[in-house]
Every structure is written in C-alpha cells, then in structure tokens.
Amino acid sequence: MRIAVVDDERAFRQQIASMISSVYGREDVSCFLYADGAEVIKAFENGFHLDAVFLDIEMKELDGMSTAKLIRSYSKDIPIVFTTSHTEMAMEGYEVDAFRFLGKPIDEEKLRLTLNDLEKKLKVEEKIVLKKDGEELIFPISSLIYVEAANNSVRFVFTSSVVELRMKFSDAVKMVDGLTGGFFKIHRSYYINLGHVTKMSATEVLMDNGETLPVARGSASSAKKELFEYIRRNGR
Asked: Looking at the whole model, is its pTM more than 0.90?
C-alpha cells in the first residue's frame, strides 16, 4: 500500500508515517511525506500512483480541504483520511467524500481500525502497478487474465492489453499473490485468474478472452478442485 502523509509540521508527518509503518508492517506499506498540499498535487500531476492520502486540514499554504478538492479532480475514489484537532470540520469533509477523520494527537487504536477498513476497501478495488520504460502502468487486478513465462520475460495478459516485462516468472507470481487470491498455476509457464475461466478439462483451459492454455498433467486435479472452490466462494 502506498500512502501519502501531508502535513506542514515535519515532526507530525514523520510520527504518523512511523505509526502507520508500525501498525501495518514496513514491508507492506510505503509512506510518502509531503510538507504541503501543493507538493502532493504535483505528485498527482506527474501521474504518481497513491492508494490513500492522510491529509492535515490546517496547513499554512494550501489547506487540507482545498487540497482534497484538487485531489478529487484527479481521482474520484482515492481514500482521503483527514487529520485534525478540529473534528467539528467533519461535515465539510462530506463535500470531498472523506474516508475518515482522525483527531490529533492520533490514537493508535483508531489508526489501526482506520488502516483495517482502508485495506478492506482497497482489496475490493485492488490495482496492479507495472513499471515499464520509466512509466507506471496501472490495471485493476480483476482484469488480469493470466501471467505467462516467455523466455527471459513475463507477459501480463489483461482484458484490454498485454504488458511484457523482463523479470522472473516466480517474481511475477509473488507480485500477484501479494495483491489477491483466485489465481492458480496450471503449468510451469501459466498462472491464471480463475475468475476468467470458462471451461476446463484435464489437458487445457479455455479463458474468457478466447485463448486456450495448457494444463500440466500433474496440475489437472488440483486445478479443477481450486476452480470449484473459487466458484463456491464467489458464486461463479
């Protein structure tokens, strides 16, 4: 998870970033610190991908509410968590669809609950970010049909496009596993999204983009079991 912490008080933004990392785990979250609203808006202008924003309301330059309105011009649904010592401003937060208000000083248990709720929301809207030619390509993880090992590269096949990157197949599998469940390795070269399967036999699987992929002999039984379990859990 990539979280922006925006506050004009250096000590506070470092404190909340430390608390977030402590609660969530340093390996699972990256905090990006901004001294004012203009800095984080510049990040949005440059196409920088963020999953959530912790935003101080009372800042000397561009205040939090004004910053939030500008953020909404770039993203209608990114969760915005306001941090403030004036919780009476909560009503104004409805104008920018605020995700949560946290009073200062930050209570660790309330922060923990906020992060838990944030994780649930983001799991529903989980995105995969692929870096290619200096750019970050962002796709809904649900649109990933399968991952394929291709010589020294990996092909990520989405419903609308294909992205090929030079990386290890095992690293690609770990990347997807870290974002969502519902994928299964049917072959040493194919890792498929069970939600895109339309037909499966002992030797091959038909995906909903019309492609037929091979199923390894030793994986057929487990693949069918995983598919049935996926359908039971998700109703398809």
From this structure: no
